[in-house]
Amino acid sequence: MNMEKVNSMDFGEFVDVFGNVIERCPLIAAAVWSQRPFSDLEDLEKHFFAFIDALPQSGQEGILRCHPDLAGREQQRGTLSAESQREQSGAGLTSLGADERQQLAKLNAQYRARFGFPFVLAARLSDRAAVPGELERRLHSQPAQELRTALGEVKKIGHLRLADLLDADSSRL
Ligand code: 2AL
Fold first, then answer.
1. Is residue 122 in contact with ligand 1, taking CB distance under 6 Å?
2. Separation of 157 CA from ligand 1 center, angstroms?
3. Which residue's CA lies nearest to atom 3 of ligand 1?
4. 27, 45, 49, 89: which could join 94 in a potential S-S bond, CB 3.0 to 4.6 Å?
5. Per-residue confidence at 170, pLDDT binned at 50, 70, 90?
């Protein structure tokens, strides 16, 4: 898909295509549509990220809360979005043994209890072996720093999803 095609999309089509760039936050794509035309992928992405950055803390935390846990209940129930399913299975998180899943569930619960939002990590840039250690490391962060880190992960996920949609090279992070 090229930018000419993106810029020609009507509102409904744009939200259908880009509505899950930020997990389960189609409102962001809806707002970004008003900013067209976009010059390139980087420009389009800039508008998604600027929307996130301009939100009050409650809105930023809301975005994090729209993310399903890694190897969590939604994955077990088969109710992940197609993008999440692909990311989590690519990282090996859909084939954990019972012990590994339990360990992750416990760490996810501790993280949520400490920060009030779920642990978010760009799964495509990680793997099942690295996730528990990263979760434990971030459990020790200060809340303001952790909010920034988690939003950075949301942007990495969004960058990779946008690059997929536009068939672009996603190596620039
Ligand atoms: C996810 C997800 O669903 N995909 C991904 O990369 N990260 N969720 C999460 N809690 O980090």
1. yes
2. 8
3. 84
4. 89
5. low
Q: Cα(8) to centroid of ligand 1, in Å?
A: 30
Token pair for 147: 């909010």
The pLDDT tens digits of the residues spanning 40-85 come to 999 999 999 999 999 999 999 999 999 999 999 999 999 999 999 9
Q: What is the 3-state secondary structure (H, E, C) of the chain?
A: CCHHHHHHCCHHHHHHHHCCCCCCCHHHHHHHHCCCCCCCHHHHHHHHHHHHHHCCHHHHHHHHHCCCCCCCHHHHHCCCCHHHHHHHHHCCCCCCCHHHHHHHHHHHHHHHHHHCCCCCCCHHHCCCCCHHHHHHHHHCCCHHHHHHHHHHHHHHHHHHHHHHHCCCCCCCC
Residues annotated as part of the active site: 67
* Amino acid of residue 124: R
Q: How far apart are CA 92 and CA 48, in angstroms?
A: 28
Task: Give residues with Cβ within 8 angstroms of 172, minimum separation 6.
Answer: none
